[in-house]
Amino acid sequence: MGDGDRGDGHAFKVSDRRKFTADGELREGAADDPESPPAAGSPSSEGQRGSRGDAGFERQPLEEPTGVDLTMLFSAMAQQALRFLGEIPNPATGNPEVDPEQARLQIDMLELLRVKCRGNMTPQEEALLDQALYQLRMLFVARAQRNP
Predict the structure, then answer these.
(1) What is the pTM of this model?
(2) What's the N-to-C CA distance of the chain in angstroms?
(3) pLDDT digits (tens, 9 = 90+) for 8-42
């Protein structure tokens, strides 16, 4: 079987479409390739970016789903953290269970939401999340001091 031969009599062609050589030099004809996106900093790429530097991304307001809101997500995640801290009994057994790693994971995910949603929350949502994170962290520290 030779290069480009699949073994069934049909050949295929491999084309190197990279814009730069291994030395970092622009390949011949790469700048003229209509299928390749414009290079960063080129005039056509600047027009696509907009004022925030988001390459080819335009923010459009989306309507929130009816019947749910962000506070419901925060509350659900906080309840899971409380359950893993032993503050709320496991619904399946009725007994409190302590799993500090899972509690920490829930708290970290809430913190991630706080970071990623910054600027997109109402003041009430932001206050609820900040308060929940503060209380969960204090409970986590207290639990760690009780059970070293």
Answers:
(1) 0.57
(2) 65
(3) 666 777 777 787 777 777 877 766 655 555 555 44
Looking at the structure, do residues 99 and 54 belong to the same domain, yes or no? no
Tell me, yes or no, whether 29 and 92 share the same domain. Answer: no
Phi, psi of 11 (to 5 degrees): -95, 155
Indicate whether 141 belongs to any domain: yes
Q: By C-alpha distance, which of 77, 95, 75 is closest to 86?
A: 95
Q: What average pLDDT does range 96-114 have in this prediction?
A: 95
Please check whether residues 114 and 75 belong to one and the same domain. yes
Q: Domain tally for the chain? A: 2
86 domain-assigned: yes
1 within some domain: no
Span 121-132, pLDDT tens digits: 999 999 999 999
Same domain for 29 and 88, yes or no, is: no
Residues 148 and 143: their CA atoms lie apart, in Å, by 8
